[in-house]
């Protein structure tokens, strides 16, 4: 009995390391597909990475960005929200979700995410610019 438990623990420990490395390779592979605008293949690679390591915030964030490029905004928000849940200090996930909300004309949520991005990383230049646009289109400035 004790040997069986030990073998299972060793197996889980080994898979934890090797599964994480495999997930990282899949995320890297997905980036190449994303750069070629093959979003379906990027999503497939990222889905497999998430299957191997369900706690991998970067995989969720990147899959969310892929869904965004396919204009599947609701699925993008779902994945980006999960990335943020897994890593509440993940500035890029907040930024990307803010951009999705911006494209959905949900300026209040966009502003909240873009401000969260800047709280985490005050030098995130794209977030500053997008925040200004969200405020402008959201009616926060008088014309």
Question: Can I get a quick summary?
Answer:
Helix content is 80%, strand content 0%. With 143 residues, the protein is an all-alpha fold.
Walk me through this protein's architecture.
The protein is 80% helix and 0% strand. Residues 1-19 have low confidence and may be disordered. It is globular. It has seven helices and no strands. Helix 2 (39-52) runs antiparallel to helix 3 and helix 3 (57-69) packs parallel to helix 5.
- Beta-sheet strand percentage? under 5%
Number of helices: 7
Secondary structure class reads: mainly alpha
Shape annotation: globular
C-alpha-based Rg, rounded: 18 Å
Overall pLDDT: 87
| Helix content range | over 70%
Summarize the biggest pleated sheet.
none
The helix/strand order is HHHHHHH
Overall number of strands: 0
Distance between the termini: 74 Å
Given as residue ranges, the uncertain stretches (5+ residues, pLDDT < 50) are 1-19
Question: What are the SSEs and their pairings?
Answer:
Layout: H1 2-35, H2 39-52, H3 57-69, H4 73-86, H5 91-103, H6 107-120, H7 125-137
Q: Which key features would you list for this structure?
A:
mainly alpha, disordered N terminus
